[in-house]
What does this fold into?
Amino acid sequence: MASLNARAMLVSLVILLVLGGLWEALNQPPPASKQLTEYELMMGAADQQARVPPPSKVLAHAWKELSNPFYDAGPNDKGIGIQLAYSLYRVITGFVAAALVAIPLGFVIGMSPLMHRALNPFIQVLRPISPLAWMPLALFVIRDSEQSAIFVIFICSIWPMLINTAFGVANVRSDWVNVARTHELSQLQTAFQVILPAAAPTILTGMRISIGIAWLVIVAAEMLVGGTGIGYYVWNEWNNLDLNSVIFSILMIGIIGMLLDMALGTVARLVEYEE
It folds into this structure.
């Protein structure tokens, strides 16, 4: 296994170097000898020659940003660390609120065929609605952009956890539940001592899906509400035509998303069991 992991890391590094080299080679500035005339500048030739910043410039910009990630020079000039902290706060708050609702409700749906049939139509109607479609209504009702963004994260996080919890609970082996009944455990004791440990891997899978969706949605939500956050940072840097910052922020979004998934993946491995 260790040998396989080492080889996989080596292949990943080679792919990264090849792609990075192609990116660097294809996005070099034109030679200095090729000066544009005033007429060519007026006709937009400079825009046609514009290229995506090469990795060398992006890495230099990343070093500059990460060397002081928590500076605060005003409303429109905050470090990447501050922007990510705002986004993580909104994601984690909405995610935890969704978990507090989805997991108990999922238990009820999974343990009761009656409640499953009664609530399933509501779930199937509400689940396909884009989380961002709720943003105008949230802004009108809540009248606060921060709380509205958290509400959108709550909405997008609740469905994967609810469905996976209900599925995991409903598919716990019946003989385990029967053993609990023979020991005269109450429904609450059965839920915590038998059903929860058995359904935990499925519940954690739903939580991993939810955190991934939440991190995707927060970027778009912050572009809409503005103010702070990594989504606002990306949009603001695009308006400033700073592609180095845009690419750097895209990479940071990917890295943070990977770390969030890895954290829940580690928890999921801890609750795995073998029959």
In short: Residues 39-49 have pLDDT under 50 and may be disordered. The domain at 82-275 is CATH 1.10.3720.10 (MetI-like fold). Residues 187-225 form the longest helix (39 residues). The chain has twelve helices and no strands.
